[in-house]
Specification:
This protein is mainly α and 220 residues long. It is built from 9 helices and no strands. It has a single domain (11-217), classed as Orthogonal Bundle (TorD-like), CATH 1.10.3480.10.
Protein backbone atom coordinates (compact mmCIF):
# COMPACT_ATOMS: atom_id res chain seq x y z
CA UNK A 1 0.00 0.00 0.00
CA UNK A 2 1.36 3.37 -0.93
CA UNK A 3 -0.04 6.86 -0.46
CA UNK A 4 -3.74 7.62 -0.53
CA UNK A 5 -5.28 11.07 -0.54
CA UNK A 6 -9.01 11.69 -0.59
CA UNK A 7 -8.47 14.45 -3.14
CA UNK A 8 -7.03 11.89 -5.55
CA UNK A 9 -9.62 10.75 -8.03
CA UNK A 10 -9.94 8.05 -10.65
CA UNK A 11 -7.75 5.01 -11.08
CA UNK A 12 -5.07 5.84 -8.52
CA UNK A 13 -7.50 6.17 -5.64
CA UNK A 14 -9.33 3.01 -6.67
CA UNK A 15 -6.07 1.07 -6.95
CA UNK A 16 -5.07 2.20 -3.46
CA UNK A 17 -8.41 1.13 -2.01
CA UNK A 18 -8.18 -2.27 -3.72
CA UNK A 19 -4.73 -2.79 -2.19
CA UNK A 20 -6.13 -1.87 1.23
CA UNK A 21 -8.96 -4.37 0.81
CA UNK A 22 -6.49 -7.17 0.11
CA UNK A 23 -4.53 -6.34 3.26
CA UNK A 24 -7.61 -5.96 5.45
CA UNK A 25 -9.15 -9.17 4.16
CA UNK A 26 -6.05 -11.13 5.12
CA UNK A 27 -5.70 -9.47 8.51
CA UNK A 28 -9.31 -10.09 9.52
CA UNK A 29 -8.85 -13.80 8.74
CA UNK A 30 -5.56 -13.99 10.62
CA UNK A 31 -6.99 -12.60 13.85
CA UNK A 32 -10.49 -14.10 13.78
CA UNK A 33 -9.63 -17.75 14.37
CA UNK A 34 -6.88 -20.34 14.37
CA UNK A 35 -5.07 -20.49 11.01
CA UNK A 36 -6.30 -23.09 8.56
CA UNK A 37 -4.17 -24.97 6.08
CA UNK A 38 -5.98 -23.16 3.26
CA UNK A 39 -5.09 -19.75 4.74
CA UNK A 40 -1.46 -20.70 5.22
CA UNK A 41 -1.17 -22.09 1.70
CA UNK A 42 -2.62 -18.85 0.35
CA UNK A 43 -0.05 -16.80 2.25
CA UNK A 44 2.70 -19.07 0.93
CA UNK A 45 1.59 -18.39 -2.65
CA UNK A 46 1.89 -14.60 -2.36
CA UNK A 47 4.27 -13.27 -5.00
CA UNK A 48 6.35 -10.31 -3.83
CA UNK A 49 7.55 -7.88 -6.47
CA UNK A 50 11.34 -7.41 -6.55
CA UNK A 51 10.99 -3.62 -6.69
CA UNK A 52 9.05 -3.69 -3.39
CA UNK A 53 11.59 -5.83 -1.56
CA UNK A 54 11.70 -3.57 1.50
CA UNK A 55 7.92 -3.16 1.83
CA UNK A 56 5.41 -5.30 3.69
CA UNK A 57 8.03 -6.80 5.99
CA UNK A 58 5.37 -8.27 8.29
CA UNK A 59 3.56 -10.05 5.49
CA UNK A 60 6.86 -11.24 4.07
CA UNK A 61 7.81 -12.71 7.45
CA UNK A 62 4.48 -14.59 7.50
CA UNK A 63 5.12 -15.80 3.95
CA UNK A 64 8.65 -16.93 4.77
CA UNK A 65 7.48 -18.81 7.86
CA UNK A 66 4.95 -20.71 5.73
CA UNK A 67 7.59 -21.60 3.13
CA UNK A 68 9.93 -22.74 5.89
CA UNK A 69 7.31 -25.14 7.25
CA UNK A 70 5.80 -26.39 3.97
CA UNK A 71 7.16 -29.90 4.47
CA UNK A 72 5.36 -30.22 7.82
CA UNK A 73 2.37 -27.99 7.18
CA UNK A 74 -0.26 -30.12 8.92
CA UNK A 75 1.78 -30.48 12.10
CA UNK A 76 2.73 -26.79 12.03
CA UNK A 77 -0.89 -25.73 11.55
CA UNK A 78 -1.75 -27.55 14.78
CA UNK A 79 1.12 -25.81 16.57
CA UNK A 80 -0.09 -22.44 15.32
CA UNK A 81 -3.60 -23.22 16.54
CA UNK A 82 -2.28 -23.86 20.04
CA UNK A 83 -0.24 -20.65 19.94
CA UNK A 84 -3.26 -18.68 18.68
CA UNK A 85 -5.30 -19.94 21.63
CA UNK A 86 -2.53 -19.12 24.10
CA UNK A 87 -2.02 -15.61 22.73
CA UNK A 88 -5.60 -14.50 22.20
CA UNK A 89 -8.05 -16.80 24.00
CA UNK A 90 -6.80 -18.14 27.28
CA UNK A 91 -8.08 -20.03 29.40
CA UNK A 92 -6.80 -17.34 31.75
CA UNK A 93 -6.26 -13.77 30.57
CA UNK A 94 -4.22 -14.18 27.37
CA UNK A 95 -1.01 -12.18 26.91
CA UNK A 96 -2.46 -10.31 23.90
CA UNK A 97 -6.08 -9.54 24.74
CA UNK A 98 -7.78 -8.90 21.35
CA UNK A 99 -10.40 -6.41 22.57
CA UNK A 100 -10.17 -2.62 22.29
CA UNK A 101 -11.87 -2.00 25.65
CA UNK A 102 -8.97 -3.68 27.48
CA UNK A 103 -6.56 -1.04 26.16
CA UNK A 104 -8.85 1.99 26.19
CA UNK A 105 -10.55 1.64 29.58
CA UNK A 106 -8.67 2.77 32.69
CA UNK A 107 -9.49 -0.49 34.48
CA UNK A 108 -8.70 -2.75 31.50
CA UNK A 109 -12.32 -3.91 31.57
CA UNK A 110 -13.98 -5.83 28.76
CA UNK A 111 -17.43 -4.99 27.39
CA UNK A 112 -17.13 -1.44 28.69
CA UNK A 113 -18.25 1.96 27.38
CA UNK A 114 -15.67 1.67 24.64
CA UNK A 115 -17.43 -1.44 23.32
CA UNK A 116 -20.75 0.39 23.24
CA UNK A 117 -19.14 3.34 21.44
CA UNK A 118 -17.81 1.02 18.74
CA UNK A 119 -21.24 -0.54 18.30
CA UNK A 120 -22.70 2.93 17.76
CA UNK A 121 -20.18 3.53 14.98
CA UNK A 122 -21.19 0.26 13.34
CA UNK A 123 -24.85 1.24 13.49
CA UNK A 124 -24.11 4.72 12.16
CA UNK A 125 -22.53 3.09 9.11
CA UNK A 126 -25.55 0.83 8.66
CA UNK A 127 -23.85 -2.37 9.82
CA UNK A 128 -25.76 -5.02 11.78
CA UNK A 129 -23.50 -7.61 13.38
CA UNK A 130 -24.42 -11.21 12.63
CA UNK A 131 -22.74 -12.58 15.75
CA UNK A 132 -23.97 -9.95 18.18
CA UNK A 133 -23.04 -10.94 21.75
CA UNK A 134 -21.13 -14.02 20.55
CA UNK A 135 -17.97 -12.04 19.78
CA UNK A 136 -17.76 -8.61 21.45
CA UNK A 137 -17.99 -5.75 18.98
CA UNK A 138 -14.50 -4.47 19.77
CA UNK A 139 -12.64 -7.68 18.91
CA UNK A 140 -9.74 -6.93 16.56
CA UNK A 141 -11.14 -9.15 13.79
CA UNK A 142 -14.58 -7.54 13.99
CA UNK A 143 -13.03 -4.08 13.78
CA UNK A 144 -10.89 -5.12 10.82
CA UNK A 145 -14.04 -6.46 9.19
CA UNK A 146 -15.76 -3.12 9.77
CA UNK A 147 -12.80 -1.28 8.29
CA UNK A 148 -12.96 -3.61 5.31
CA UNK A 149 -16.66 -2.81 4.89
CA UNK A 150 -16.08 0.95 5.00
CA UNK A 151 -13.23 0.69 2.51
CA UNK A 152 -15.30 -1.50 0.19
CA UNK A 153 -18.21 0.95 0.26
CA UNK A 154 -15.80 3.84 -0.29
CA UNK A 155 -14.40 2.10 -3.37
CA UNK A 156 -17.84 1.14 -4.65
CA UNK A 157 -19.24 4.66 -4.37
CA UNK A 158 -16.10 6.09 -5.98
CA UNK A 159 -16.34 3.73 -8.95
CA UNK A 160 -19.97 4.75 -9.47
CA UNK A 161 -19.06 8.44 -9.06
CA UNK A 162 -21.43 8.94 -6.14
CA UNK A 163 -19.59 11.85 -4.57
CA UNK A 164 -21.90 12.30 -1.57
CA UNK A 165 -21.64 8.62 -0.59
CA UNK A 166 -17.89 8.63 -1.20
CA UNK A 167 -17.44 11.59 1.11
CA UNK A 168 -19.69 10.03 3.75
CA UNK A 169 -17.78 6.75 3.88
CA UNK A 170 -14.47 8.57 3.81
CA UNK A 171 -15.41 10.58 6.90
CA UNK A 172 -16.89 7.55 8.69
CA UNK A 173 -13.68 5.65 8.10
CA UNK A 174 -11.47 8.53 9.10
CA UNK A 175 -13.36 9.00 12.37
CA UNK A 176 -13.17 5.29 13.19
CA UNK A 177 -9.44 5.17 12.51
CA UNK A 178 -8.45 8.43 14.19
CA UNK A 179 -10.69 8.29 17.26
CA UNK A 180 -10.50 4.58 17.96
CA UNK A 181 -8.57 2.05 15.88
CA UNK A 182 -5.10 3.61 15.86
CA UNK A 183 -5.31 4.29 19.60
CA UNK A 184 -5.36 0.68 20.74
CA UNK A 185 -4.06 -1.53 17.93
CA UNK A 186 -0.35 -0.61 18.34
CA UNK A 187 -0.22 -1.68 22.03
CA UNK A 188 -2.11 -4.84 21.12
CA UNK A 189 0.39 -5.65 18.37
CA UNK A 190 3.34 -4.95 20.67
CA UNK A 191 1.91 -7.39 23.21
CA UNK A 192 2.00 -10.05 20.52
CA UNK A 193 5.63 -9.23 19.74
CA UNK A 194 6.52 -9.46 23.43
CA UNK A 195 4.67 -12.74 23.96
CA UNK A 196 5.59 -15.11 21.14
CA UNK A 197 8.60 -16.56 19.36
CA UNK A 198 6.49 -17.91 16.52
CA UNK A 199 7.58 -16.13 13.34
CA UNK A 200 4.11 -16.36 11.80
CA UNK A 201 2.52 -14.34 14.61
CA UNK A 202 5.47 -11.96 14.82
CA UNK A 203 4.92 -11.28 11.13
CA UNK A 204 1.18 -10.85 11.68
CA UNK A 205 1.83 -8.29 14.42
CA UNK A 206 4.21 -6.33 12.21
CA UNK A 207 1.79 -6.50 9.29
CA UNK A 208 -0.91 -5.05 11.54
CA UNK A 209 1.43 -2.32 12.78
CA UNK A 210 2.47 -1.44 9.24
CA UNK A 211 -1.18 -1.13 8.26
CA UNK A 212 -1.86 1.25 11.15
CA UNK A 213 1.25 3.27 10.31
CA UNK A 214 0.13 3.50 6.69
CA UNK A 215 -3.22 4.98 7.69
CA UNK A 216 -1.60 7.38 10.14
CA UNK A 217 0.95 8.61 7.58
CA UNK A 218 -1.74 9.12 4.98
CA UNK A 219 -3.96 11.03 7.42
CA UNK A 220 -6.44 8.14 7.41
Amino acid sequence: MSGLCFMNTGKRMEDELKAELLALNLLRQVFLAEPTRKLLEGIGEIDFRPERETEQTGLRKMHDSVKKNESRLEEWTEQLSLEFARLFIGPAQPPAVPFASFYLSETHSLMSEETIAVRKQYLEAGVALKDLYQIPDDHIAIELDFLYYLTFRLLESSEHEKSAETQNYFHLRKAFLKDHFVLWVPPFAHRILESTREEYFIGAAWFLLETVQYYAQENY
